[in-house]
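Follow-up to my earlier ticket, as requested here are the two runs.
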Amino acid sequence: MYQRILVPLDGSQNAQSALKTAIQIARYFGSTLILMSVADQGSMSIASGSLPLDLSQELGKRAQQILNEGQSTAETAGVAMESFVTEGIPKNEIVSAAEDEEADLIVIGKSGADALNRLLIGSTTAYVVRRAPVQVLVVNAEEN
């Protein structure tokens, strides 16, 4: 049913919960996870007008670090996985990736790490739910 599951990662607890849920689904269906992280150019560009090169590089490094953590979790779980980092506005990149990567399902956290972005331009998750070309499963952070 679900062969390719897209999991956007932003370092938040909700994203970690989404990854755990996606791993369970992947195990059940024998799916491949497609992990992605976005070097978020959007909120910084709105605040400053453009991004200095060092800040852009730092955003890319942070996105790669988040992706590495997700890869480690998926590898430990023993599920098939692909991964990539991209630059841009997360909500747009996620919707585009669903098409480009031929995903059957997106598993995404209820809200991400960037509260300022939600206030300025709206929820990434809400946008993805409205615009995604595939089904979207929204996951809350686990209660401790």
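Run two:
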Amino acid sequence: MVNTILKEADLFCPNSVRINFTIYHINTNNPEVQRTNSLSLAKKLSDDFTNPIIVKIISRHHKLQTNKDETQIKVSRTFLSELKLLAYLDNAEVVSVIEKAPENLSRVHYGMNNFYNEPPFAERLDEIVSQIKPIPSVIRESFINEILTCYFGNQYGVSDAALPFYKKMIQNLTPKEIDYLLRS
């Protein structure tokens, strides 16, 4: 069934993306399975996104921002993140997306069972920052400090399962980020 939908989606891809975006966002009370299926289909179609399709998705996201409904905006950012479209957001939004990920990682890093709980948060931060280069200067300091703190561990040690994500983020630092790192 999915293959049939994907074959037919070639014919109406812009409308399909619009429909998936609507199902995923507009009614956050939609059943989780419906929202998950919508996102899965959009991910499968994302390799074939043309510039006009990306423009439509980003403009629909910005229309949601005018409603000032924080729940819908958060859901929309998640949708864009999953489709690897965060690079198309403006600086203020990028800062708000990146700001929360290091805070969540820090909370888990110093919390109970951090060795077990930390890897998914590290992976999520890696997914986010891999889409956004360079990291905006206003958030650079907290991002780098958090990565280094987690990389070197806390008084109980290091989360070995999270280390590959920290190494990858450190290796992918831009020259400005490396400059900050060396200065600190």
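The only thing I checked on run two: The radius of gyration is 18 Å. Let me know what else you need.
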